[in-house]
């Protein structure tokens, strides 16, 4: 068994698509109309067959409530791996990203947390 798609709830699919592609650097793999919303899936650059990140609308009341509560409690919605967290932190700061936690060493890992502007906190980690 293998993870092929994971999703993150977003408040606005267009805004999320712009942030996740232009600011974070993911690549759009699918953008298909599905009723009033779209199936928008992103992949890591150079990994077209890798795990897809689905930008899921938070239109359902339970999704909206879940997203608001974990954000309010400071819980990241997902985690992305980076090779050099300090370099990535600097790049994202230069692109206007707001960090709620600066790079912090935690055992063998270094983590940082930022606001994706779409209702989520995102954690980046360097192993």
UniProtKB/TrEMBL annotation:
<dbReference type="InterPro" id="IPR029068">
    <property type="entry name" value="Glyas_Bleomycin-R_OHBP_Dase"/>
</dbReference>
<dbReference type="InterPro" id="IPR037523">
    <property type="entry name" value="VOC_core"/>
</dbReference>
<dbReference type="InterPro" id="IPR004360">
    <property type="entry name" value="Glyas_Fos-R_dOase_dom"/>
</dbReference>
<protein>
    <recommendedName>
        <fullName>VOC domain-containing protein</fullName>
    </recommendedName>
</protein>
<feature type="domain" description="VOC">
    <location>
        <begin position="1"/>
        <end position="127"/>
    </location>
</feature>
<dbReference type="Pfam" id="PF00903">
    <property type="entry name" value="Glyoxalase"/>
</dbReference>
